[in-house]
Specification:
alpha+beta, Heat Shock Protein 90, 2 domains, five-stranded mixed beta sheet, about 55% helix, elongated
C-alpha cells in the first residue's frame, strides 16, 4: 500500500507540474496572439514551451492567421482597385458631360444660325448618349461581377446573332466611312450560353473597334480547325497600340491615354472576356504589322436549336 500511495503521489506531482507548464504555455500563447493581432507582420505563433499537445492548436491558429492575412490583402487590393476605378469612371463621365455643358452654353448665343444650333444639339445628344453607354456598361459589369445577372442556358446560333448585331452597326460604319470585309461561313453554329450575352460580346467588340479603330475592318466567323467550336475574329488597323498594350486590352478599366477623349472606360472588352469565359470559351488580342486582331472562341454544343 505504501508503494501504491507513493506511486500515486508521484503521478499527481507529475500531473500538477504538467498542468503548471501547460498553463504557462497557454498564457504565453495568448500573449503572442494578442501581440500579433496589433502588428502588421507575417510572424506566426510559436510553441515556445515545447508542449507537443499544443501543436495541433497552434497549427490551427496559424492557418487561421494566414487565411485572415490573405483576406486582408485581398480586401486592401480590392479597395485600392475600387478607388482607382471610381477615379477612372469619374474622369470618363466628366469628359462628355463637360463637353455637353460647354455646347449648351454656346447655344445661349442668340446670334447662332439654325445650322449651328442643330450641329451643337447633335453634339450634345452624342455626348449624353456616350454617358448613358458608360453608365450602362458599368451597371452591367457590376451585376456580372456580383453574379446577379440573369442567365439563360440555351443553345444559341452565334452566326445568326452576329448577323443581327452587324446589321445594327451598319449605319455606324457607314457614318465613319469605314469599309468592312465580312466573311461568315454559311452554316448553323450552335453554342451553349445566353443569347443576350453573345449579343453583348459581339456588340462590345464592334463598338470598341468603331471608337478606337482606324479602318481596314475585317470580321470573320468560322468553325475552328484546331478546337471543337467556332472562332470569331475582328481585325482593324491600329497604329498606336503596342504588343504590350494589346496584351492588356481585356484588363478592367484599361485605356490608352491617347484614347481618353473617347470616354470609354475599357469595360466593354472586359465584359466580353468575362462573358466568353462564362460560356467556357476564351479570347485573346494580338497586334501584327499595325493590325489589331481580337479573337473569341466558343465551344460547339450538340444541343437542339429552337427555331423562331
Amino acid at each position: 500500500m505504501i508503494y501504491l500511495a507513493a506511486g500515486l503521489s508521484l503521478l499527481c506531482l507529475i500531473l500538477v507540474i504538467m498542468l503548471i507548464r501547460l498553463r504557462f504555455a497557454l498564457r504565453d500563447l495568448s500573449r503572442q496572439i494578442s501581440d500579433l493581432s496589433t502588428k502588421q507582420t507575417n510572424q506566426l505563433v510559436r510553441n515556445t514551451h515545447g508542449q507537443k499537445m499544443l501543436n495541433p492548436l497552434i497549427n490551427s491558429i496559424n492557418d487561421e492567421m494566414r487565411s485572415l492575412r490573405e483576406s486582408m490583402i485581398r480586401t486592401e487590393r480590392t479597395d485600392r482597385q475600387i478607388r482607382e476605378s471610381l477615379t477612372e469612371i469619374s474622369h470618363d463621365l466628366r469628359t462628355p458631360l463637360t463637353a455637353a455643358s460647354g455646347y449648351t452654353g454656346m447655344l445661349k448665343n442668340m446670334e447662332l444660325s439654325e445650322e449651328e444650333k442643330i450641329r451643337y444639339l447633335n453634339v450634345i445628344e452624342e455626348r449624353f448618349e456616350t454617358s448613358r453607354e458608360l453608365v450602362d456598361q458599368l451597371f452591367y459589369y457590376t451585376r456580372l461581377e456580383s453574379d446577379s445577372l440573369g442567365w439563360n442556358e440555351e443553345t444559341v446560333d452565334i452566326r445568326k446573332v452576329l448577323s443581327s448585331v452587324l446589321a445594327m452597326y451598319y449605319g455606324d460604319f457607314e457614318k465613319k466611312h469605314f469599309d468592312v470585309d465580312v466573311q461568315i461561313e454559311e452554316k448553323v453554329m450552335p453554342v451553349l450560353g445566353d443569347e443576350d450575352a453573345v449579343k453583348r460580346i459581339f456588340s462590345n467588340i464592334l463598338s470598341n473597334g468603331l471608337s478606337h479603330g482606324e479602318g481596314d475592318f475585317r470580321i470573320t466567323l468560322s468553325e475552328s480547325s484546331r478546337e471543337n467550336g467556332f472562332l470569331f475574329s475582328f481585325s482593324n488597323r491600329a497604329t498606336e497600340i503596342t504588343e504590350e498594350e494589346a496584351a492588356h486590352l481585356f484588363d478592367r478599366f484599361f485605356t490608352k491615354d491617347t484614347a481618353r477623349s473617347s470616354s470609354h472606360t475599357g469595360l466593354g472588352l472586359t465584359i466580353a472576356k468575362t462573358l466568353t469565359e462564362k460560356m467556357h470559351g476564351h479570347c485573346e488580342a494580338e497586334i501584327q504589322k499595325n493590325m489589331l486582331t481580337i479573337s473569341i472562341f466558343l465551344p460547339k454544343t450538340t444541343g437542339i436549336l429552337h427555331k423562331d
